[in-house]
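Session log. Operator J.P. requested a structure for one protein chain; no other inputs attached. Running the standard single-chain path with token output.
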Amino acid sequence: MLHKLSGMMTGGALIALACASPVFAQGSSGDLMALDGSALRGEIQSRYDEALGLTNDPAIIAGDNNRFTWASQAKAQCGIALGFLKSDTKDPVSIGKCADAAMRMRMVPPAVVVVAPPPPVERPEACSQPMAGIVFFDWDSSVLPESAGQTLDSVVNYTKLCGWNRLVVTGHTDRSGSDAYNNALSVRRAQAVAGQLEGKGIAQGVLSVSGKGETEPKVPTPDGERNPTNRRVEITVQ
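Structure written below.
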């Protein structure tokens, strides 16, 4: 009984191995084995010629796929099969491998879908302007007026949007008062503006603070004249 079971298992194993071998490969190998003579030779030759062409095709050689590998395999196995056929021998191993490799080399890989990057975001025209904002002050004051909030919010938004990494905050005064007093006042005004910008999210390292006193009036006036246009802090992009 054990001897019979062993024999049955051995037979089953042999059948499984045979089915897994290239001789019994599914697809066109069975069709080729059913052919004889010139018909078989023609089919093998056509696969060989196709494989030869692919192995010499620069696009296939450089392509990022396995077609070149299978074409090389098909060329070799179909060549062996043709060699056997010259002596009228139908070699099932080389024919099966020829058919399998040829089938695989004909499998065109899926097209690579290239997703175009989104168009660049257009920079607002304000990003190319040197003046980011200007704040006007009351006479003899370094206290920010309520109207400055909207201007400073705009500066913060554009700094982030435009990628500005250097803002120069420069204080100015009108020509009333002494030079020494106006120099100090212009610095206090610039510091007040810079402090508000930092509080709104601008990094301290982005800001450069200075004061010009009354030396660079926006509107030229006689010495001692009060002029609201000259009492200002300018925020420029560097």
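Operator note: The CA atoms of residues 112 and 221 lie 70 Å apart.
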